[in-house]
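User: Could you check the structure of this?
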Amino acid sequence: MNETNNSLAAPVAVRRATDGGLMTSDVDIQVATAKRFPRSIGQFKERALEMVTLDQETAQSCIYALKRGGKIIDGPSARCAEIVASSWGNLRVAAKTTGADDGFIYAESVCWDLETNVAVSFETRRRITNKAGERFNDDMIGVTGNAAVSIAFRNSVFRVVPRAYVNEIYAAARKVAAGGAETLRGRRAEMLKFFAGFGVVERQLLDLLSVTTCDDISLDHLAVLRALATSLKEGRSVEEVFGRVDEPPGPRAGDDGPSIPEASGAPDPAITDKPSEPASRSDFLATQKSAVLAEIRRVANSRFPDDGAAAQAVRLKTLAHVFGSPNPDKIGLLPLDVLKAGLAYLESNQEIQP
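Assistant: Sure, the predicted structure tokens are below.
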């Protein structure tokens, strides 16, 4: 749902989406305050630019990129929208999930500029089933719902705050994210290593950027690669970011990609550091899953380092809680984006009560 409301009264959607709703008196006070203390565009730019250029990591998180129709589409991310919203002033934004059915979870965000009385509501949805049509478990549905809320939030904010101002903030973030020319070689190597971990080889990246060698990767190209990396870090699958892969890459020498060990019965098995046999490289997705499963193993070992039977039991129950099963074979059948979301959940160090 997309709608814009310029009525004199507070939009109904804003009252519905805001926690607890807004009483008429509250609306009047907020609008009157906004008129009394109008925003300064100069202060907005100063605050937003200060935040997006705070450090390179922050700047990188403000950019996302996807491949669509053979082209790379990049733009300001949800993190950038948060910075813009907090700096704009006299702005109310509410975002939440609105429900779910058998196949999708829905989220809505409402952004209301109290000063101009322009309100926009935006609804989005995310799939909560795998390729086999099986519904995600509750934790994965929660992770997917958070992603839907972030997308709705971003889209509503960028439909209220004029894009002419956002573009300037976004350009500053891209410049900082790319880094300086003196560090370009090191950043090239860092990016190639990052994508190699997801099975995206150097030749694919060069073809994507339409360059011949790594030395041809410029600062602008590096900013694009950073944006693509942000999309992967936010839980998007390689296929979603890069589009369909026509020719899967071959094996990388010396990369055997350890994965979650086999469950073998009593006593409860532990996740070990022993690497698995080399995975088949004929399947592009298998390469991605091998890397993610290996990282899941590492994070699980880090959270539960004790080798005792009690720790092993908690470890397996935690895997079942996050992925729906402690069986590595069943975990390996989950879609890549679900595995990444589960890994992010484990890395968050949230207290889990299996």
